[in-house]
Please model this.
Amino acid sequence: MTTIDLTTDSFNSAVEDNDILFVDFWAAWCGPCRAFAPTFQSASEKHPDITFGKVDTEAEQQLSAAAGITSIPTLMVFRDQILVFSQPGALNPPQLDQVITAVKGLDMDAVRKTLAEAEQAQ
Model:
């Protein structure tokens, strides 16, 4: 599967409509972003069961600000509409594969339980 371009208009529906969504926040002028792009694209082709999206932080400044992006590239991962991973910095292929494996292996019932307990504790 190829990556999809995400915008302010399409971001929420992408999170809601996909079981697993990897999002790369990037900019054309960013060297590490350009270096990470082939790794991200390759992973999207190897994992057709995952949706991979890209947000151009220059074109989508409002979305980037709402997502709290302060450094690029930043990778965010949503599973079952829950943000389960967010980290700035370019990953190499083995690191990205490790994140993919970890996200696929998450016990989402346990994640939801932990989130609910954290909310109650506040």
Summary: Strands lie at 4-5, 20-26, 51-56, 74-79, 82-88. The helical segments are 8-17, 31-46, 61-66, 93-104, 108-121. The mean pLDDT is 95.
